[in-house]
Amino acid sequence: MTASAPETTGTARPARRAKAAKPATMGQAIGRALRDAMAEDPAVHVLGEDVGTLGGVFRITDGLAAEFGDDRCTDTPLAEAGILGTAVGMAMYGLRPVVEMQFDAFAYPSFEQLASHVAKMRNRTRGAMPLPITIRVPYGGGIGGVEHHSDSSEAYYVATPGLHVVTPATVEDAYGLLRAAIASDDPVVFMEPKRLYWSKSDWSPEAPAEVEPIGRAVVRRAGTDATLLTYGPSLPVCLEAAEAARAEGRQLEVVDLRSLVPFDDETVCASVRRTGRAVVVHEATGFGGPGAEIAARVTERCFHHLEAPVLRVTGFDIPYPPPMLERHHLPGVDRVLDAVERLQWEARS
Amino acid sequence: MSKKRQSTPVVDRRRPTGPEDVPEAAEHTVTPPAWRPRVDPGPLLPDESPFRLLGTEAAQEADPALLKRLHRELVLGRRYNTQATALTKQGRLAVYPSSTGQEACEVAAALVLEERDWLFPSYRDTLAAVARGLDPMQALTLLRGDWHTGYDPRAVRIAPLSTPLATQLPHAVGLAHAARLKGDDVVALAMVGDGGTSEGDFHEALNFAAVWQAPVVFLVQNNGFAISVPLDKQTAAPSLAHKAVGYGMPGRLVDGNDALAVHTVLAEAVAGARAGGGPTLVEAITYRIDAHTNADDATRYRGAEEVEAWRAHDPVELMEGALRARGLADEAAFAAVREDAERFAASLRERMNADAELTPADLFDHVYAEPTPQLREQAAQLRAELDAEAASHGEDLR
């Protein structure tokens, strides 16, 4: 449980436990969250393409069909609108479906069900029929995927009232946020940064962290000079940039947003008011991307604390590039540091 | 060379082969050797013409109580349609998609269901909900411009009216599937129009239902038009019922103005689904006598002769003819039902003429289980605006 006050860890990873367990990957933590949720609540059903016998193309659901049976972890026909649409009906009958969209760009056929029903059913029925559905979306680039395998689609979801949108950047959060998403009575789009699937930590599935509520950002690295606001796949980039900046004498604070909806204005603004400068970093395209909203919110709320305009480091406003060119598109350490340099440092002197 | 080519066997790559599996080349140049149809399509095919009962010998054996009940609901349903259409002209309904001419489908769909079953209506199917027992005030809440749904779907087992075409069909499949997984013998009946069968969700819902053998019945009311577009611009299929065969489920074709026939076909499909027999697609041939809605002008896309021909095949008159032929009702009985329908319409009219009372603050209450901090800010903003407005008018608008 994260306290409402920002928590600082100083590094990307929390302090090592006294007894170091076998390192777990983010993918394993997600799978463990699914397993624990299914064991705890018979209403939790997993459905999607290849999630059963194969265990998913990323092996996230490995073992679930064997442990819980095909009726609890179901290989569906290959149709994303059908997967989400039938999940709506299952939720109407009291189940708690967790659907897997195989890749970011393959989720688009389900968008009508998402926007017209999943997001609106609670409001449509004035609270009588909420839909506790979790939609897992592997997203983002950096894995050398060919076209349709690397989109950062979070802006579509963020712009749809009625959905919660969360994304973990650490192994621990992958477990905790997914448990919270499944436990939520609201629909949650759970965006999985697929290039972090293989990231490791000493997190142990035997002693999983407490499930924390959705909606709180966390300070991953404390700093005094500027704040990097980021989430998901860009967190490691920002931590690396902060480390590099330290060598140049700048102390950067790094905030992991974790939840885009609801948005934690409190933690974000507390950080920016302390540092006076902010850069938003994400892979999604910049125009109309989450960074536009975040920069506007920070400017509206922290204007008199700001020493410079809030800058954004994002993917270019282009369709996701071929894998041989993706490194030019993805926000990297140098591009983040360049943005930090442009934060009008001369104005302070 | 040619000799060698002749002796090279073509091997089915989908299964391991041994020497005994190598067939003669001539046997599999057209069909892979292991292939056979996965199901026999014959029993799934619809009849060659729509199933009819009223006016036939078979109708003589129909349950008199059922015939009288269907008649009563048809008469009330027709009056409901004319009253709702009138309410649009008086500004009491924002819009009304009439089901005049389609009452047999609406009524039969409602009556075949048990209380524990679920109905999934489209926007044109408020009558089915009303025939199932829902207060018409609640059924019409959306079309009044009041809140989107006027009832608790779980309490009455009627899904919210679905406006995006065919999107309610996968919901019905998922709900029926969930009920079966829980061991409940609940059936879902989902309603869609001919235009809706072109939507991708129609395809996905039928496919999921058949693969899962979900206890769901799809009722397609083929009323001839998707707003203005006739069926021949919608599909090249022999009939909409034929589409069922492609999914491996039975398709049934029925005269959609013959309430007894629709009731019989739907009841069989519901019983089959309840018994574990999986889904059925029913196509009811009917006609939308009124325009798409009060905002539509049907004279732009169809002639009066066509409408008159269908008026001669009216579902209410068909039923009255059957009751007369059986000697089950006389003119006094018909008049008594019409009087009940007038009272029903008067009650609806009277209640609709009272202004709806909506609370602006409710806008933020049900977006999420708990309003987000952002929504709390916006709710406070609206509250302040309303307070300022109230102060300037000297009244409380909240």
TrEMBL record, chain A:
One of its GO terms (biological process) is response to nutrient. Residues 1-11 have a biased composition (Polar residues). Residues 1-24 are annotated as: Disordered. Its EC number is 1.2.4.4. It is an enzyme of class 1 (oxidoreductase). Keywords: Oxidoreductase. Residues 24-199 form the Transketolase-like pyrimidine-binding domain. InterPro entries: THDP-binding (IPR029061), Transketo_C/PFOR_II (IPR009014), Transketolase-like_Pyr-bd (IPR005475), Transketolase_C (IPR033248). Its cofactor is thiamine diphosphate. This is 3-methyl-2-oxobutanoate dehydrogenase (2-methylpropanoyl-transferring). It comes from Streptomyces albidoflavus.
TrEMBL record, chain B:
Keywords: Oxidoreductase, Pyruvate, Thiamine pyrophosphate. Residues 1-43 are annotated as: Disordered. GO terms for molecular function: magnesium ion binding; oxidoreductase activity, acting on the aldehyde or oxo group of donors, disulfide as acceptor. The keyword Oxidoreductase applies. The keyword Hydrolase does not apply. InterPro entries: Alpha-ketoacid_DH_E1_comp, DH_E1, PdhA/BkdA, THDP-binding. Residues 78-341 form the Dehydrogenase E1 component domain. CDD domains: TPP_E1_PDC_ADC_BCADC. This is Pyruvate dehydrogenase (Acetyl-transferring) E1 component subunit alpha. It comes from Streptomyces albidoflavus.
